[in-house]
Design a protein that fits this description.
Elements (H helix, E strand, L loop, with lengths): L2 H23 L9 H9 L3 H11 L11 H10 L6 E6 L8 H8 L1 H15 L3 E6 L7 H17 L5 E6 L9 H8 L23 E5 H13 L1 H7 L7 E8 L5 E6 L4 H8 L4 E6 L5 E4 L18 E6 L4 H15 L5 H19 L6 H15 L3 H4 L2 H10 L1 H5 L3
Parallel strand pairs: 1-2, 1-4, 2-3, 5-9
Antiparallel strand pairs: 5-6, 7-8, 7-9
Helix pairs in contact: 2-6, 3-4, 3-6, 3-10, 6-9, 9-10, 12-13, 13-14, 14-16
Bound molecules: flavin mononucleotide.
Length: 405
Protein backbone atom coordinates (compact mmCIF):
# COMPACT_ATOMS: atom_id res chain seq x y z
CA UNK A 1 0.00 0.00 0.00
CA UNK A 2 1.32 3.46 -0.88
CA UNK A 3 2.00 6.01 1.88
CA UNK A 4 -0.94 8.16 0.69
CA UNK A 5 -3.31 5.19 0.67
CA UNK A 6 -2.14 4.20 4.17
CA UNK A 7 -2.72 7.74 5.43
CA UNK A 8 -6.25 7.91 4.01
CA UNK A 9 -7.13 4.44 5.43
CA UNK A 10 -5.89 5.57 8.86
CA UNK A 11 -7.92 8.79 8.60
CA UNK A 12 -11.04 6.84 7.58
CA UNK A 13 -10.81 4.43 10.49
CA UNK A 14 -10.31 7.38 12.88
CA UNK A 15 -13.40 9.01 11.39
CA UNK A 16 -15.40 5.80 11.63
CA UNK A 17 -14.50 5.47 15.32
CA UNK A 18 -15.66 9.04 16.01
CA UNK A 19 -18.86 8.48 14.05
CA UNK A 20 -19.61 5.28 15.94
CA UNK A 21 -19.24 7.14 19.22
CA UNK A 22 -21.62 9.83 18.01
CA UNK A 23 -24.10 7.28 16.67
CA UNK A 24 -24.51 5.97 20.22
CA UNK A 25 -25.88 9.37 21.14
CA UNK A 26 -28.06 9.88 18.08
CA UNK A 27 -29.43 6.80 16.39
CA UNK A 28 -33.08 7.67 16.21
CA UNK A 29 -34.12 8.22 12.65
CA UNK A 30 -32.57 5.31 10.79
CA UNK A 31 -33.34 2.63 13.37
CA UNK A 32 -36.02 0.25 12.17
CA UNK A 33 -39.07 0.03 14.40
CA UNK A 34 -42.50 -1.56 14.13
CA UNK A 35 -44.49 1.49 13.02
CA UNK A 36 -47.87 -0.31 13.03
CA UNK A 37 -47.46 -1.37 16.68
CA UNK A 38 -46.29 2.14 17.53
CA UNK A 39 -49.31 3.70 15.81
CA UNK A 40 -51.63 1.46 17.87
CA UNK A 41 -49.85 2.67 21.00
CA UNK A 42 -50.18 6.30 19.88
CA UNK A 43 -53.95 5.92 19.49
CA UNK A 44 -54.20 4.72 23.11
CA UNK A 45 -53.04 8.17 24.24
CA UNK A 46 -55.27 11.23 24.06
CA UNK A 47 -54.49 13.99 21.52
CA UNK A 48 -53.87 16.35 24.45
CA UNK A 49 -51.31 13.99 25.96
CA UNK A 50 -49.49 13.76 22.63
CA UNK A 51 -49.49 17.51 22.12
CA UNK A 52 -48.04 17.92 25.61
CA UNK A 53 -45.30 15.37 24.80
CA UNK A 54 -44.31 17.02 21.52
CA UNK A 55 -44.35 20.47 23.14
CA UNK A 56 -42.29 19.30 26.09
CA UNK A 57 -39.81 17.53 23.82
CA UNK A 58 -38.71 20.95 22.54
CA UNK A 59 -38.76 19.57 18.97
CA UNK A 60 -38.20 22.38 16.48
CA UNK A 61 -38.77 22.24 12.74
CA UNK A 62 -35.92 20.58 10.88
CA UNK A 63 -36.75 22.37 7.59
CA UNK A 64 -34.54 25.35 8.43
CA UNK A 65 -36.66 27.91 10.26
CA UNK A 66 -36.69 25.97 13.53
CA UNK A 67 -40.24 26.81 14.58
CA UNK A 68 -41.40 24.83 17.67
CA UNK A 69 -43.50 21.91 16.39
CA UNK A 70 -45.83 21.68 19.40
CA UNK A 71 -46.68 25.38 19.10
CA UNK A 72 -47.45 24.99 15.38
CA UNK A 73 -49.76 22.04 16.01
CA UNK A 74 -51.55 23.85 18.84
CA UNK A 75 -52.21 26.84 16.59
CA UNK A 76 -53.69 24.57 13.89
CA UNK A 77 -55.81 22.74 16.47
CA UNK A 78 -57.21 26.00 17.81
CA UNK A 79 -57.83 27.58 14.38
CA UNK A 80 -61.43 27.27 13.20
CA UNK A 81 -61.91 25.37 9.94
CA UNK A 82 -64.30 22.84 8.38
CA UNK A 83 -61.35 20.78 7.10
CA UNK A 84 -57.73 20.69 8.27
CA UNK A 85 -54.63 19.48 6.47
CA UNK A 86 -51.16 18.14 7.19
CA UNK A 87 -48.50 18.62 4.54
CA UNK A 88 -45.13 16.94 4.62
CA UNK A 89 -42.64 19.28 2.97
CA UNK A 90 -40.41 16.99 0.92
CA UNK A 91 -39.43 19.62 -1.63
CA UNK A 92 -35.79 19.65 -0.48
CA UNK A 93 -34.39 22.17 -2.97
CA UNK A 94 -31.68 23.85 -0.89
CA UNK A 95 -28.38 23.11 -2.65
CA UNK A 96 -26.27 20.80 -0.53
CA UNK A 97 -29.29 19.22 1.17
CA UNK A 98 -30.16 15.61 0.43
CA UNK A 99 -31.07 14.18 3.84
CA UNK A 100 -34.86 14.16 3.29
CA UNK A 101 -34.36 12.03 0.21
CA UNK A 102 -32.59 9.38 2.32
CA UNK A 103 -35.24 9.51 5.07
CA UNK A 104 -37.98 9.19 2.42
CA UNK A 105 -36.22 6.23 0.82
CA UNK A 106 -35.38 4.42 4.02
CA UNK A 107 -38.05 5.39 6.53
CA UNK A 108 -41.31 6.39 4.74
CA UNK A 109 -43.46 4.71 7.43
CA UNK A 110 -42.03 7.02 10.08
CA UNK A 111 -43.01 10.05 8.02
CA UNK A 112 -46.59 8.86 7.60
CA UNK A 113 -46.91 7.95 11.28
CA UNK A 114 -45.63 11.47 12.11
CA UNK A 115 -48.28 12.93 9.79
CA UNK A 116 -51.01 10.74 11.30
CA UNK A 117 -49.92 11.78 14.81
CA UNK A 118 -50.20 15.42 13.75
CA UNK A 119 -53.63 14.70 12.25
CA UNK A 120 -54.76 13.02 15.47
CA UNK A 121 -53.72 16.07 17.49
CA UNK A 122 -54.95 18.81 15.12
CA UNK A 123 -58.03 16.93 13.81
CA UNK A 124 -56.76 17.11 10.25
CA UNK A 125 -58.36 14.62 7.89
CA UNK A 126 -56.20 14.96 4.78
CA UNK A 127 -52.46 14.66 4.38
CA UNK A 128 -50.16 15.32 1.45
CA UNK A 129 -46.53 14.53 0.88
CA UNK A 130 -45.29 17.31 -1.43
CA UNK A 131 -42.17 15.82 -2.96
CA UNK A 132 -39.75 17.54 -5.31
CA UNK A 133 -40.15 16.50 -8.94
CA UNK A 134 -36.58 15.23 -9.16
CA UNK A 135 -37.47 12.55 -6.57
CA UNK A 136 -40.06 11.07 -8.92
CA UNK A 137 -37.95 7.90 -9.05
CA UNK A 138 -39.34 6.96 -5.62
CA UNK A 139 -42.97 7.89 -6.33
CA UNK A 140 -44.05 4.28 -6.77
CA UNK A 141 -42.74 3.22 -3.36
CA UNK A 142 -44.10 6.31 -1.59
CA UNK A 143 -47.54 5.88 -3.18
CA UNK A 144 -47.58 2.20 -2.16
CA UNK A 145 -46.67 3.23 1.39
CA UNK A 146 -49.54 5.79 1.42
CA UNK A 147 -51.99 3.11 0.21
CA UNK A 148 -50.80 0.65 2.86
CA UNK A 149 -51.38 3.20 5.61
CA UNK A 150 -54.71 4.39 4.15
CA UNK A 151 -55.97 0.78 4.31
CA UNK A 152 -54.89 0.57 7.93
CA UNK A 153 -56.47 3.93 8.80
CA UNK A 154 -59.72 2.75 7.21
CA UNK A 155 -59.69 -0.52 9.14
CA UNK A 156 -59.17 1.39 12.36
CA UNK A 157 -61.82 4.03 11.51
CA UNK A 158 -59.08 6.62 11.81
CA UNK A 159 -60.34 9.58 9.76
CA UNK A 160 -57.17 10.46 7.86
CA UNK A 161 -55.96 9.79 4.31
CA UNK A 162 -52.57 10.57 2.86
CA UNK A 163 -51.44 10.98 -0.75
CA UNK A 164 -48.47 12.14 -2.80
CA UNK A 165 -48.11 15.38 -4.79
CA UNK A 166 -45.13 16.12 -6.99
CA UNK A 167 -43.45 19.51 -7.39
CA UNK A 168 -41.92 20.66 -10.66
CA UNK A 169 -38.41 21.64 -9.69
CA UNK A 170 -38.74 25.21 -8.37
CA UNK A 171 -36.67 25.95 -5.25
CA UNK A 172 -39.21 28.54 -4.09
CA UNK A 173 -41.91 25.86 -3.83
CA UNK A 174 -40.18 24.61 -0.68
CA UNK A 175 -41.32 27.83 1.01
CA UNK A 176 -44.50 26.71 2.69
CA UNK A 177 -46.93 29.26 1.23
CA UNK A 178 -45.51 28.88 -2.31
CA UNK A 179 -45.83 25.14 -1.80
CA UNK A 180 -49.51 25.57 -0.95
CA UNK A 181 -50.02 27.76 -4.04
CA UNK A 182 -48.32 25.13 -6.19
CA UNK A 183 -50.49 22.38 -4.67
CA UNK A 184 -53.55 24.48 -5.52
CA UNK A 185 -52.56 24.58 -9.19
CA UNK A 186 -51.33 28.19 -9.06
CA UNK A 187 -47.88 29.66 -9.78
CA UNK A 188 -45.49 28.77 -6.98
CA UNK A 189 -45.27 32.23 -5.44
CA UNK A 190 -45.11 32.94 -1.69
CA UNK A 191 -48.05 34.61 0.01
CA UNK A 192 -47.80 37.52 2.39
CA UNK A 193 -47.78 36.33 5.99
CA UNK A 194 -49.85 36.66 8.20
CA UNK A 195 -52.16 34.88 7.80
CA UNK A 196 -49.97 31.85 8.42
CA UNK A 197 -50.83 28.42 7.00
CA UNK A 198 -51.87 27.17 10.45
CA UNK A 199 -54.93 29.42 10.17
CA UNK A 200 -55.28 29.87 6.37
CA UNK A 201 -53.32 27.34 4.40
CA UNK A 202 -54.36 24.86 1.71
CA UNK A 203 -57.88 25.73 0.44
CA UNK A 204 -57.66 28.58 2.98
CA UNK A 205 -58.11 26.06 5.79
CA UNK A 206 -55.82 25.41 8.79
CA UNK A 207 -52.76 23.54 7.55
CA UNK A 208 -49.66 22.24 9.29
CA UNK A 209 -46.60 22.16 7.04
CA UNK A 210 -43.76 20.14 8.51
CA UNK A 211 -40.46 18.98 7.12
CA UNK A 212 -39.81 15.26 6.44
CA UNK A 213 -37.25 15.02 9.24
CA UNK A 214 -39.46 16.84 11.76
CA UNK A 215 -42.24 14.29 11.17
CA UNK A 216 -39.84 11.36 11.43
CA UNK A 217 -38.60 12.75 14.76
CA UNK A 218 -42.21 13.02 16.00
CA UNK A 219 -42.49 9.27 15.44
CA UNK A 220 -39.22 8.60 17.25
CA UNK A 221 -40.24 10.75 20.21
CA UNK A 222 -43.46 8.74 20.44
CA UNK A 223 -41.40 5.53 20.36
CA UNK A 224 -38.37 6.36 22.50
CA UNK A 225 -39.97 8.81 24.85
CA UNK A 226 -39.07 12.31 25.86
CA UNK A 227 -36.03 11.64 27.97
CA UNK A 228 -34.04 9.92 25.28
CA UNK A 229 -34.78 12.63 22.73
CA UNK A 230 -33.83 15.36 25.16
CA UNK A 231 -30.62 13.60 26.16
CA UNK A 232 -29.26 13.42 22.61
CA UNK A 233 -28.19 17.03 22.00
CA UNK A 234 -24.90 18.36 23.31
CA UNK A 235 -26.41 21.73 24.20
CA UNK A 236 -30.00 22.68 24.99
CA UNK A 237 -31.16 22.55 21.35
CA UNK A 238 -32.95 19.20 21.95
CA UNK A 239 -32.47 16.07 19.89
CA UNK A 240 -30.39 15.04 16.95
CA UNK A 241 -30.19 16.32 13.42
CA UNK A 242 -29.70 14.69 10.09
CA UNK A 243 -26.89 16.39 8.17
CA UNK A 244 -26.04 16.31 4.48
CA UNK A 245 -22.26 16.59 4.23
CA UNK A 246 -20.69 17.62 0.92
CA UNK A 247 -17.90 19.67 -0.64
CA UNK A 248 -14.24 19.11 0.25
CA UNK A 249 -15.03 16.54 2.91
CA UNK A 250 -13.09 13.40 3.79
CA UNK A 251 -16.40 11.57 3.98
CA UNK A 252 -19.62 12.76 2.38
CA UNK A 253 -23.18 11.63 2.82
CA UNK A 254 -26.04 11.71 5.29
CA UNK A 255 -25.31 11.41 9.00
CA UNK A 256 -27.43 11.79 12.11
CA UNK A 257 -25.54 13.63 14.83
CA UNK A 258 -26.36 15.41 18.07
CA UNK A 259 -27.20 19.10 17.86
CA UNK A 260 -24.91 21.43 19.75
CA UNK A 261 -21.55 20.37 18.28
CA UNK A 262 -19.11 23.12 17.41
CA UNK A 263 -18.13 23.57 13.77
CA UNK A 264 -14.61 22.54 14.86
CA UNK A 265 -15.90 19.20 16.19
CA UNK A 266 -17.72 18.74 12.90
CA UNK A 267 -14.65 19.57 10.83
CA UNK A 268 -12.52 17.20 12.95
CA UNK A 269 -14.75 14.38 11.78
CA UNK A 270 -15.57 15.33 8.22
CA UNK A 271 -12.81 17.72 7.11
CA UNK A 272 -9.93 16.80 4.82
CA UNK A 273 -7.36 18.51 7.06
CA UNK A 274 -7.42 21.73 5.01
CA UNK A 275 -10.92 23.11 5.65
CA UNK A 276 -10.98 26.90 5.43
CA UNK A 277 -14.74 27.47 5.62
CA UNK A 278 -18.00 25.65 6.24
CA UNK A 279 -21.25 26.78 4.70
CA UNK A 280 -23.77 25.93 7.41
CA UNK A 281 -27.39 25.68 6.23
CA UNK A 282 -27.01 25.54 2.46
CA UNK A 283 -26.64 28.46 0.09
CA UNK A 284 -28.98 30.59 2.21
CA UNK A 285 -27.01 29.86 5.39
CA UNK A 286 -23.89 31.34 6.99
CA UNK A 287 -20.33 30.82 5.84
CA UNK A 288 -18.20 30.11 8.93
CA UNK A 289 -14.44 30.76 8.48
CA UNK A 290 -11.74 28.67 10.17
CA UNK A 291 -11.08 31.29 12.88
CA UNK A 292 -14.68 30.89 14.11
CA UNK A 293 -14.87 27.06 13.99
CA UNK A 294 -14.20 26.58 17.70
CA UNK A 295 -16.72 29.15 18.89
CA UNK A 296 -19.60 28.45 16.50
CA UNK A 297 -22.23 26.01 17.71
CA UNK A 298 -24.46 24.13 15.28
CA UNK A 299 -27.93 24.25 16.73
CA UNK A 300 -30.79 26.50 17.67
CA UNK A 301 -28.63 28.36 20.19
CA UNK A 302 -25.94 28.92 17.59
CA UNK A 303 -26.07 28.70 13.81
CA UNK A 304 -29.27 27.12 12.62
CA UNK A 305 -29.25 24.69 9.73
CA UNK A 306 -31.74 22.68 7.77
CA UNK A 307 -28.93 20.14 7.60
CA UNK A 308 -26.70 21.17 4.72
CA UNK A 309 -22.99 21.36 5.58
CA UNK A 310 -20.69 22.24 2.68
CA UNK A 311 -16.96 22.17 3.42
CA UNK A 312 -14.46 24.25 1.43
CA UNK A 313 -10.71 23.76 1.44
CA UNK A 314 -7.91 26.09 0.36
CA UNK A 315 -8.19 25.08 -3.30
CA UNK A 316 -11.59 26.81 -3.57
CA UNK A 317 -12.02 30.38 -4.73
CA UNK A 318 -14.63 31.95 -2.47
CA UNK A 319 -15.36 34.40 -5.29
CA UNK A 320 -16.51 31.50 -7.47
CA UNK A 321 -18.41 30.04 -4.52
CA UNK A 322 -20.32 33.29 -3.96
CA UNK A 323 -20.87 33.80 -7.70
CA UNK A 324 -22.32 30.30 -7.90
CA UNK A 325 -24.70 31.04 -4.99
CA UNK A 326 -25.84 34.33 -6.55
CA UNK A 327 -26.43 32.73 -9.94
CA UNK A 328 -28.60 30.15 -8.21
CA UNK A 329 -30.66 32.77 -6.37
CA UNK A 330 -31.04 34.91 -9.49
CA UNK A 331 -32.36 31.86 -11.34
CA UNK A 332 -34.67 30.73 -8.54
CA UNK A 333 -36.12 34.06 -7.35
CA UNK A 334 -39.81 33.84 -8.22
CA UNK A 335 -39.64 37.45 -9.47
CA UNK A 336 -42.78 38.49 -7.63
CA UNK A 337 -41.17 41.22 -5.49
CA UNK A 338 -38.71 43.83 -6.76
CA UNK A 339 -36.17 43.68 -3.89
CA UNK A 340 -35.45 40.01 -4.54
CA UNK A 341 -35.88 40.01 -8.34
CA UNK A 342 -33.63 43.01 -8.93
CA UNK A 343 -31.46 42.55 -5.84
CA UNK A 344 -30.24 39.04 -6.75
CA UNK A 345 -29.27 40.30 -10.21
CA UNK A 346 -27.52 43.44 -8.95
CA UNK A 347 -25.51 41.57 -6.31
CA UNK A 348 -24.19 39.24 -8.98
CA UNK A 349 -23.38 42.09 -11.39
CA UNK A 350 -21.79 43.99 -8.49
CA UNK A 351 -19.26 41.33 -7.47
CA UNK A 352 -18.42 40.65 -11.13
CA UNK A 353 -17.79 44.39 -11.70
CA UNK A 354 -15.54 44.64 -8.62
CA UNK A 355 -13.60 41.62 -9.77
CA UNK A 356 -13.16 43.05 -13.28
CA UNK A 357 -12.16 46.42 -11.86
CA UNK A 358 -15.02 48.33 -13.48
CA UNK A 359 -16.25 49.20 -9.98
CA UNK A 360 -14.02 50.26 -7.06
CA UNK A 361 -13.65 48.00 -4.03
CA UNK A 362 -15.75 50.49 -2.04
CA UNK A 363 -18.71 49.28 -4.13
CA UNK A 364 -19.00 46.49 -1.56
CA UNK A 365 -20.62 49.01 0.83
CA UNK A 366 -23.43 49.63 -1.66
CA UNK A 367 -23.89 45.89 -2.18
CA UNK A 368 -24.05 45.27 1.56
CA UNK A 369 -26.62 48.05 1.90
CA UNK A 370 -28.64 46.42 -0.88
CA UNK A 371 -28.53 42.94 0.65
CA UNK A 372 -29.56 44.34 4.03
CA UNK A 373 -32.50 46.16 2.42
CA UNK A 374 -33.47 42.86 0.78
CA UNK A 375 -33.44 41.39 4.28
CA UNK A 376 -36.30 43.62 5.35
CA UNK A 377 -38.10 44.43 2.09
CA UNK A 378 -38.32 41.06 0.33
CA UNK A 379 -41.62 39.26 0.44
CA UNK A 380 -40.24 35.93 1.63
CA UNK A 381 -37.20 34.32 3.19
CA UNK A 382 -35.52 33.66 -0.19
CA UNK A 383 -34.63 37.31 -0.64
CA UNK A 384 -34.42 37.94 3.11
CA UNK A 385 -31.81 35.30 3.82
CA UNK A 386 -29.36 36.29 1.08
CA UNK A 387 -27.63 38.55 3.60
CA UNK A 388 -26.39 35.39 5.38
CA UNK A 389 -24.09 34.07 2.65
CA UNK A 390 -23.35 37.45 1.08
CA UNK A 391 -22.24 39.26 4.22
CA UNK A 392 -20.39 36.32 5.76
CA UNK A 393 -18.44 35.46 2.60
CA UNK A 394 -17.60 39.05 1.69
CA UNK A 395 -16.61 39.83 5.29
CA UNK A 396 -14.32 36.84 5.81
CA UNK A 397 -12.99 36.34 2.29
CA UNK A 398 -12.96 39.85 0.86
CA UNK A 399 -9.45 39.51 -0.58
CA UNK A 400 -10.59 36.45 -2.55
CA UNK A 401 -13.65 38.28 -3.87
CA UNK A 402 -11.46 41.02 -5.33
CA UNK A 403 -8.27 39.26 -6.33
CA UNK A 404 -7.79 37.50 -9.66
CA UNK A 405 -7.27 34.15 -7.89
C1 LIG B 1 -36.89 29.58 -0.38
C2 LIG B 1 -37.28 28.59 0.68
C3 LIG B 1 -37.19 27.23 0.45
C4 LIG B 1 -37.55 26.31 1.42
N1 LIG B 1 -37.42 24.99 1.15
C5 LIG B 1 -37.80 24.09 2.09
C6 LIG B 1 -37.71 22.69 1.81
O1 LIG B 1 -37.29 22.27 0.73
N2 LIG B 1 -38.11 21.82 2.78
C7 LIG B 1 -38.59 22.25 4.00
O2 LIG B 1 -38.97 21.45 4.83
N3 LIG B 1 -38.68 23.57 4.27
C8 LIG B 1 -38.31 24.48 3.35
N4 LIG B 1 -38.44 25.81 3.64
C9 LIG B 1 -39.02 26.19 4.94
C10 LIG B 1 -40.56 26.08 4.89
O3 LIG B 1 -41.09 27.33 4.44
C11 LIG B 1 -41.17 25.77 6.27
O4 LIG B 1 -40.61 26.64 7.21
C12 LIG B 1 -40.94 24.33 6.71
O5 LIG B 1 -41.40 23.41 5.76
C13 LIG B 1 -41.70 24.10 8.01
O6 LIG B 1 -41.45 22.82 8.49
P1 LIG B 1 -40.72 22.57 9.89
O7 LIG B 1 -41.35 23.48 10.90
O8 LIG B 1 -40.96 21.13 10.20
O9 LIG B 1 -39.27 22.88 9.67
C14 LIG B 1 -38.06 26.76 2.68
C15 LIG B 1 -38.14 28.13 2.92
C16 LIG B 1 -37.75 29.03 1.95
C17 LIG B 1 -37.86 30.49 2.24
Amino acid sequence: MSQDAEKSTAKLSKVEKKLNLLKKRAHLIFRNIDCVKLFNRILKKTPDEILATITESGLRGRGGAGFPTGMKWKAALEAPGAVKYVICNADEGEPGTFKDRVILERQPDKIIVGMATCAYVTKATEGYIYMRGEYNFMSKEIKACCEKWNDLFEKKDFPFRVSLRLGSGAYICGEETALIESMSGNRGEPRLRPPFPVSEGFNDMPTVVNNVETLAYVTMIMDDGLDFFKSVAKDDSMGGKVFSVSGDAAIKGVFELPLGMTVQEFVDIFGDGDTKAVQVGGFSGLCVPRKHFATTIIGYRGVQTGGSMILYNSTRSMYLVLKNYLEFFQEESCGQCAPCRIGCQQLLLGIEAMRQGTRPLSHIDKLRELVNVMGVASKCKLGMSLANPFNSITEHFFEEICSKW
